[in-house]
Write a structure and sequence with these properties.
Blueprint lengths: L5 H18 L3 E3 L8 E6 L7 H10 L4 E8 L7 E7 L14 E2 L2 E2 L2 E4 L65 H7 L26 E3 L1
Parallel strand pairs: 1-8
Antiparallel strand pairs: 2-4, 2-7, 3-4, 5-6
Length: about 210
């Protein structure tokens, strides 16, 4: 469903949250433009720098860092890139791009994050056209399709995966998945990092009802 104001957006979110508790309705929503975090790439820090130290340093510099994680370089390549999400504020852009020192280390470079172009896929439910941040659908493991995080998947790695979307013997983010391919042709597709594995055709997995708005 579409809404025309920030107030309506928040009212609908509250209403859907109540339905989730009382009737088990699954839903997701999109961030309001003013609430979207600024995504940046940080270069020049040692590979073993703790993310929590970077968050604190960014906050000390006047930028409300919310999340930081390292992006390891490919084998054989030096260095490390850090991905960060910073709360949007009046001074965030272009101010954060002027930061050249963090944790007493000069030569730091902060630039706009450039995500890989492709199909937007939620890392929580494995469905498409939204992210995990405002997803209230049942969790689905990207490896086995069961309702738990991928980090807690009990399935041995030597066993084949099961796609949460089509039931095939591949991970849910496999670009060979028939559901993935179908959604790729959707003009509303967004951005996500993707991986590949060998596909096997199986009956499609049943999906719960879904309510979404933007």
């Amino acid at each position: 469903m579409k809404n025309s104001s920030d107030e309506e957006n928040r009212a609908i979110q509250a209403y859907l949250a109540d339905l989730e508790k009382s009737q088990g309705v699954a839903w997701f929503s999109y961030y309001l433009p003013a609430e979207r975090s600024v995504k940046v790439a940080i270069r020049g820090l040692p590979v073993d720098t703790p993310p929590e130290d970077i968050i604190e340093a960014l906050r000390d510099a006047g930028h409300g860092a919310e999340y930081v994680r390292p992006i390891r370089a490919r084998q054989g390549r030096p260095g490390c890139l850090y991905y960060a999400q910073v709360a949007r504020a009046d001074n965030t852009i272009p101010g954060i791009y002027g930061v050249t020192e963090l944790l007493c280390m000069p030569g730091i470079k902060i630039e706009a994050w450039r995500g890989k172009k492709g199909l937007a896929q939620c890392h929580r439910c494995q469905q498409f056209r939204h992210s995990s941040h405002n997803c209230h659908r049942p969790m689905a493991c990207v490896r086995c399709g069961e309702e738990h995080p991928a980090s807690e998947c009990p399935r041995p790695k030597e066993e084949p995966p099961t796609c949460a979307n089509c039931g095939g013997a591949h991970t849910a983010n496999n670009t060979s998945c028939p559901v993935f391919r179908r959604e790729t042709r959707n003009p509303r597709a967004g951005t996500v990092a993707r991986t590949a594995a060998a596909p096997t055709a199986k009956p499609a997995a049943a999906q719960p009802s879904l309510v979404y708005f933007y």
